[in-house]
Write a structure and sequence with these properties.
With 280 residues, this protein is mainly α. It is built from eleven helices and no strands.
């Protein structure tokens, strides 16, 4: 039995074992998240609160377990769960440029196609159909979804392949996973851009919470658009001029990239563990 246990630990400790473990964990958690997401739309607000609290307790217990057991270090450390202490100011200064880049890229997608990627019709229907219980979808979209999705895509999935393939292929894989999971073909170009930006932010800050913050701000803006009467993609024939959007997007994207460069340098100096991501 001891030999079997030692063999099992040796297999799981190797890179194929770690890759398989993280991918399996990602698939299971993504399935649970999808089912919970569908369930939340049908439940009473009190039941939703119970589900969220139960999930938060389970997540807290898992987090404490990973932090306290050395055997879980190979799973916990790559998730970049460190706090934003020391780099929070840089992240806040970078947020406007990042949000503007995402918004302008969405306008570019709208200029080149007949659809606007945000907000999606399903999202509009859920929020507008909630009536007096609007707080449930708002909290889920702005608070819960960013945390879960960042842990899944920029945490587990990105780290699963980073050790084997390197940083940029892993960013690509996590971005593709993020796009496919949303199952909205009209929004794929913007979702790909958003997923890549979130991944770069997480890697630059060496903290998953930077991605959570940007994700929450992005979702809050989308929710605000819906609450103030925004229409789903394709409902309007008003498309911005492509040249104008490109002229605006290029300097904004350049400023966002400079902000990420400063953030990456600061994060490496703080933790001495931030990865090199090609800013130098």
């Amino acid at each position: 039995m001891r030999q079997c246990g030692a063999s099992a630990r040796q297999v799981l400790g190797s890179w194929p074992g770690r890759l398989a473990t993280r991918v399996a964990l990602f698939v299971v958690l993504l399935g649970l998240y999808g089912e919970t997401n569908a369930l939340v739309k049908r439940l009473h607000p009190v039941a939703v609160l119970i589900v969220v609290l139960a999930a938060a307790l389970c997540a807290t217990a898992l987090y404490a377990h990973f932090r306290s057991h050395r055997s879980c270090a190979s799973i916990y450390r790559p998730l970049r769960m460190r706090s934003l202490a020391g780099s929070g100011g840089l992240i806040l200064r970078a947020l406007p440029w990042l949000v503007l880049s995402i918004g302008l890229f969405g306008m570019l997608c709208r200029s080149l196609t007949s659809h606007s990627a945000s907000p999606s019709p399903a999202l509009v229907e859920w929020i507008n159909g909630s009536g007096q219980d609007m707080i449930v979808p708002v909290v889920w979209i702005v608070v819960v979804a960013p945390i879960i999705e960042e842990i899944l895509f920029r945490g587990i999935l990105l780290s699963a392949f980073e050790e084997v393939l390197g940083l940029w292929p892993s960013v690509l894989i996590s971005t593709v996973g993020f796009v496919v999971a949303h199952s909205d073909p009209a929004a794929y170009p913007q979702l790909a851009f958003i997923g890549a930006v979130f991944a770069i932010v997480v890697v630059s800050a060496n903290s998953l919470w930077a991605g959570v913050l940007l994700h929450a701000v992005n979702n809050a803006i989308v929710t605000l658009v819906i609450l103030t009467g925004g229409q789903p993609g394709g409902a309007s024939n008003d498309h911005p001029d492509v040249q104008t959007v490109v002229v605006l997007l290029l300097p904004v994207a350049w400023m966002a990239w400079r902000s990420m460069r400063r953030l990456a340098i600061a994060s490496r100096s703080i933790s001495n563990a931030g990865p090199e991501i090609g800013f130098q």
